[in-house]
């Protein structure tokens, strides 16, 4: 659900234009002076690019027996929020609002509070301090909310503990078993790890706060969260992974109401219609075709949501079993007339007459076999997508910074000025429950702030906020909701600030703050108390749906359909079969209504530090960093380019070896395949290693340090290109900086996680039994082929092959190969390959089986009572219409390639078989006339006296043709699996 309207608001934090007494001002000025002195002392020799990770635990360059090491670095991750936003079963992608606190210790940032006026903690920009690299594993996409208007802040305590709070929207890939769809439940979560550092250098601990919302508010309209927790997973050499887990189950009401109940009643009426007036065979076939066509509409509703998994979900099985029940009913109905003839013949003998004189005999005479079978088959039949609201949210933020005060009289009367936002301190503003926040800022349009002479500072900003709200759509389409933008401060202690919310008079009336579908009835400001934090300011909007679309396209047509149906049902009530046909027609028409609704209807219901050792390590690391990067320029390439230079004496020059780039694949997981675009999307994690001889040192000169960690932007990085890529996403932000490692011998490397969408040629002729080979190709085409060499390798996958596919695709092989370039100027391409094949269950259940039964019934109907030509044309048209709905299901997925896929050929051949059947049906009456004329001759009459003649007289040509075309239909079906 998406709602967009304009909202402009003002909120004042830390008390707008707050006046202070002289004593209060003196205390505040002393605090500022002490804080500035602390800042100057703390950061005088501090370099945020130098890692706080201690790396000597296993160094071979120091005497390990005589060295008492400090404990390994501990990173504590505390989950503050894990709210389910969306589940895309087809892609096995789960989206969460994931808020967490990261805390660790950087002993360079310690002080004695008594020396700085009692200050025990300060707030600093995150970019001012070293931050550990945090990786969210199996992530399809991770959004961090940051802008110049909302700078990222960290806190530092006097004991060196540093930390920050961050809000993300994390889309992660989880394997989903949807066999019990729509009564399925799953477990998934956000996994956090460190891949850049060695496992013996750090420890991650996961915790969770008491969540600010109950479990009932952590799901959405379609999914209910039943558990939130933390677990630890060991990854061997890669260390431990912290998993923040959610268990959730589907609210099945949508599928019960729009699929299961209609399907049940369609079958209920069809079975009754089949067992009344059983002599009319043509009518029964029409009922069967109508049933299949109505059920095909149900499949159209299902097709968009039903996961394309190897195991066919229960809901699809339910629909298929319903079809089988009706098909079995039709088969029995066609046999019943012969059973009745047999009973009538048997009743002629005297024994039967005597039996009829008993009570049981009379009951058996009255009880018709069709009624018994009707009851049997009836018993067999018995046994908001995203709750996201988008606002245009403009606001002013005002606060007081007493450092920015002046006397206007000293400056020509100037009482306020405008400055770039980056020149002043700004509070960190967080928008809670946000799926996405867009701020508009460009180098061409820099963000400004105003400063008044009394220290009042502020800025205006325009955003587009997508907020997750719980929506009760029980009264859809007459529903109304309350939702809004919640603003809070998570980084500061609640006793250190106060937020106040207010609102300006809007430039537009309320009637213009909605959109075409939604009408805004109220806009206001409220305050919400939090258990763990200070109050949250909520800028609220009440919205009401405009129901005109649904009234005109759903409610009014549905009313008139039912009105006419009821009228027709109670006219000429003796014709029972006609009434049942009317009922089926009504349900089919109402199913069209459900198709309109289905798209829009929400789916609801630690050990003290050994100071001396660590200080020596930090001092040696700082000295190493200073010496290493004194003359180092990361913009200068490490590639040696003289191998073929014509400007030097090649015979007298001994060249160093060419640069070697090693690419090691750590993960290749298939996320999605879009056959129409020939695009495959992978989670592709890899580490890259090479040698930069400028970055070598003797560990003995630097306290045994054999490797260090630095920001990637501090060093030269080779240009790595993913070939044939449609899109490549790298996850990085100020909250999760990208780190590289450097070894003493000049070996440099990094680990990175990507989502790579690559273009692969796919031969889908055997669709849906097709299999493909595709992967991520890495090249370095910027450099000459004789200047570098690439090597590809792979680690043991952290997951088995069975978990590297998705619901629709099964991965059968992961590997690496090298492919030579056809151009001598370019080096080899390293290909990280995946072979995968489609799970065809979805298409078998929703396309192939229904299409087979449609053709089976159509052929049967065509060759029964062949004299009724108009009925045969109707059967043909009904068949084409039903098959067209099958094509509707196929159209979105079927690749538009030069070679028509087998499944499309199957449908087309099915149509040809039926069309040929119709043509022969139209010829049979003329053939029969010719045979009748021929039989009038005496010779033919004599021939009829023979056994073969009598057999030919009994065997009708239409039955022969029926068998021939049913065999053709069956062969057409079976050949797909060969």
UniProtKB/TrEMBL annotation:
The keyword rRNA-binding does not apply. It is found in: Membrane. It is a multi-pass membrane protein. The chain crosses the membrane at residues 254-278, 285-304, 316-339, 548-570, 582-601, 841-861, 873-891, 903-927, 959-977. Residues 1-17 form the signal peptide. Residues 37-227, 374-532, 623-839 form the Neurotransmitter-gated ion-channel ligand-binding domain. This is Uncharacterized protein. It comes from Caenorhabditis briggsae.
């Amino acid at each position: 659900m998406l709602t967009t309207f304009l909202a402009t608001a003002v909120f004042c934090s830390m008390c707008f234009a707050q006046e202070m007494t002289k004593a209060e001002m003196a205390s505040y000025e002393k605090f500022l002076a002490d804080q500035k002195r602390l800042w100057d002392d703390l950061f005088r020799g501090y370099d945020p690019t130098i890692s706080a990770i201690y790396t000597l635990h296993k160094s071979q360059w120091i005497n390990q027996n005589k060295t008492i090491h400090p404990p390994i670095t501990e990173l504590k991750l505390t989950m503050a929020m894990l709210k389910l936003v969306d589940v895309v079963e087809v892609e096995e992608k789960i989206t969460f609002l994931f808020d967490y606190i990261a805390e660790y210790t950087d002993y360079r940032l310690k002080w004695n509070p008594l020396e700085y006026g009692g200050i025990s903690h300060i707030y600093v920009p995150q970019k001012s301090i070293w931050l550990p690299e945090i990786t969210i594993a199996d992530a399809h996409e991770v959004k961090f909310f940051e802008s110049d208007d909302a700078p990222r802040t960290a806190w530092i305590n006097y004991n060196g503990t540093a930390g920050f709070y961050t809000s993300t929207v994390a889309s992660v890939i989880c394997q989903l078993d949807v066999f019990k769809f729509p009564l399925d439940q799953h477990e998934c979560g956000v996994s956090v790890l460190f891949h850049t550092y060695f496992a013996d250098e750090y420890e991650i601990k996961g915790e969770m706060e008491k969540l600010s919302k109950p479990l009932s508010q952590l799901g959405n309209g379609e999914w209910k969260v039943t558990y939130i927790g933390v677990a630890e997973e060991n990854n061997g050499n890669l260390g431990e992974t912290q998993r923040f887990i959610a268990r959730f189950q589907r609210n099945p009401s949508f599928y019960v109401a729009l699929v299961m109940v209609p399907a049940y009643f369609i079958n209920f009426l069809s079975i009754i219609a089949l067992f009344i007036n059983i002599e009319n065979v043509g009518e029964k076939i029409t009922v069967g075709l109508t049933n299949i066509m109505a059920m095909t509409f149900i499949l159209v509703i299902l097709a968009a949501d039903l996961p394309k998994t190897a195991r066919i979900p229960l809901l699809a099985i339910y629909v298929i079993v319903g079809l089988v029940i009706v098909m079995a009913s039709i088969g029995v109905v066609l046999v019943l007339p012969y059973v009745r003839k047999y009973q009538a013949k048997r009743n002629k003998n005297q024994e039967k007459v005597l039996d009829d004189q008993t009570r049981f005999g009379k009951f058996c005479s009255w009880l018709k076999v069709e009624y018994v079978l009707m009851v049997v088959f009836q018993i067999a039949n018995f046994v908001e997508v995203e709750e996201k609201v988008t606002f245009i949210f403009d606001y002013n933020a005002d606060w007081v910074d007493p450092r920015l005060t002046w006397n206007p009289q000293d400056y020509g009367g100037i009482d306020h000025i405008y400055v770039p936002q980056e020149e002043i301190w700004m509070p960190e503003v967080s928008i809670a429950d946000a799926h996405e926040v867009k701020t508009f800022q460009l180098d061409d349009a820099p963000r400004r702030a105003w400063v008044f002479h009394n220290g009042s500072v502020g800025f205006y900003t325009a955003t587009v906020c997508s907020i997750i709200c719980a929506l009760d759509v029980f009264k859809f389409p007459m529903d109304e909701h309350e939702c809004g933008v919640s603003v809070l401060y998570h980084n500061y202690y609640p006793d250190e600030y106060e937020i106040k919310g207010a609102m300006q008079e809007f430039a537009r009336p309320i009637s213009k703050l909605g959109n075409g579908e939604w009408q805004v009835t109220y806009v206001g400001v409220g305050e919400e108390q939090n258990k763990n934090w200070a109050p949250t300011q909520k800028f609220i909007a009440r919205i009401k749906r405009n129901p005109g679309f649904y009234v005109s396209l759903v409610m009014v047509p549905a009313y008139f359909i039912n009105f006419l149906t009821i009228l027709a049902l109670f006219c000429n009530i003796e014709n029972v079969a006609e009434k049942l046909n009317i009922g089926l027609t009504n349900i089919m028409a109402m199913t069209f209504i459900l198709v309109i609704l289905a798209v829009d209807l929400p789916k609801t219901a630690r050990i003290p530090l050994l100071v001396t050792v660590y200080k020596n390590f930090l001092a040696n690391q700082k000295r190493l960093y200073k010496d290493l990067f004194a003359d180092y320029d990361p913009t200068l390439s490490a590639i040696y380019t003289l191998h073929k230079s014509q400007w030097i004496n090649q015979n007298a020059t001994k060249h160093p070896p060419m640069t070697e780039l090693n690419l090691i694949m750590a993960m290749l997981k298939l996320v999605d395949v879009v056959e129409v675009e020939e695009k495959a999307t992978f989670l592709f994690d890899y580490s890259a290693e090479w040698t930069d001889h400028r970055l070598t040192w003797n560990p003995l000169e630097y306290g045994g340090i054999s490797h260090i960690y630095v920001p990637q932007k501090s060093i030269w990085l080779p240009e790595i290109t993913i070939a044939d890529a449609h899109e490549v996403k790298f996850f990085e932000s100020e909250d999760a900086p990208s780190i590289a490692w450097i070894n003493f011998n000049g070996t440099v490397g990094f680990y990175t996680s990507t989502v790579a969408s690559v273009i692969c040629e796919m031969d889908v002729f055997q669709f849906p039994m097709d299999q493909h080979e595709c992967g991520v190709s890495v090249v370095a085409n910027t450099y000459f082929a004789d200047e570098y060499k690439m090597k590809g390798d792979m680690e043991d996958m952290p997951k088995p092959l069975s978990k590297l596919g998705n619901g629709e695709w099964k991965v059968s092989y992961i590997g690496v190969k090298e492919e030579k370039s056809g151009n001598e100027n370019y080096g080899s391409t390293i290909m990280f390959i995946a072979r995968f094949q489609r799970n065809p269950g979805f298409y078998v259940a929703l396309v192939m089986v229904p299409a087979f039964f449609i053709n089976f019934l159509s052929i049967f109907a065509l060759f029964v009572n062949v004299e009724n030509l108009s009925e045969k044309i109707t059967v043909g048209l009904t068949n084409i219409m039903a098959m067209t709905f099958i094509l509707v299901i196929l159209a979105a997925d079927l690749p538009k390639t030069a070679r028509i896929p087998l499944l499309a050929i199957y449908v087309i051949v099915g149509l040809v078989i039926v069309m040929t059947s119709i043509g022969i049906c139209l010829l049979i009456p003329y053939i029969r006339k010719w045979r009748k004329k021929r039989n009038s001759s005496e010779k033919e009459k004599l021939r009829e006296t023979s056994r073969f003649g009598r057999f030919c007289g009994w065997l009708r040509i239409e039955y022969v043709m029926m068998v021939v075309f049913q065999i053709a239909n069956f062969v057409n079906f079976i050949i797909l699996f060969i």
